[in-house]
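W.,

You were right to be curious about this one. When I first looked at the sequence I had no strong expectations either way, so I just let the prediction run and decided to look at it fresh. Below is the sequence, 285 residues in total, followed by the output.
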Amino acid sequence: MTESTALYDTPGPHARQRHLLYGLVSTAVLLALVGRVLYLLFDTGRFTSAPWTPFAYKGIQELLLRGLGNTLKAFACASVLSLALGALLAAGRLSEHRVPRWISTLLVEFFRAMPVLVMIFFIFVALKVQPLPALVAGLTLYNGSVLAEVFRTGVRAVARGQGEAAYALGMRKAQVMTYVLVPQAVRAMLPAVISQLVVALKDTSLGFLITYEEFLHAGKLIASNLDYGLPFVPVALVVSPIYIGMCMLLSWFAGRVARRERRSPKTKAVDVAPAEPRTLLPGGR
């Protein structure tokens, strides 16, 4: 007999055959699409030596490396500031005082609902900020508001009795958060945090819209100066795998950290004072 869960019944033999058929059909369709794209690329001469010759020039290589460095610089700044802003907003939302809680909630909901590109354009055009600070500010406001919800949810996910036990021992709220709730919540939050950082890395490509010389902007400059047909195709075939590789590296790191935390939780031994003889209560033995 097959077992069922609260959400769905375990598929039987016929259902498994249908699922296998769906998987094979989907795989065949995807392979057909990939084959069609490769055929068009070969048919239009995209894999001949001429479209790839410019990438052997030192100037183009330096331009790509400079753009990649600017992308990583924007990502590093936005990541650190997003984590700091997220922690600050999460602390405000978890506050017992109404005013900081309402202000933090308003900021989180506003910046989460606002498109990140609109914020970047507003900071760059209306506030007349330089491209790098404008890009970092837009990414920080959006990703920081999302991370605030991740932090708040992670802390709330810890069993309620943990905090109550800490309060019963006489600990203050700051101590409860620092020594009891946050260390337990980090293990659950870490994959979501790193996944949001992957989003921040991908969104750095929006910098080319405000003339920030990041990786995608460097690829656009190269494509606009090539003198053969469809110059953006080889540029995209160079730029896209690097973006995908960086995002996959971060995703792999998130999965590795999550598996390591689940497999080997870190515990520390606590020294216990030896028992000492004490005076018995009246009537005690």
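Here's what jumped out at me. The first helix runs from residue 13 to 43. And, maybe more interesting for your project: Confidence is low (pLDDT under 50) at residues 1-6.

Coffee later to discuss?

I.
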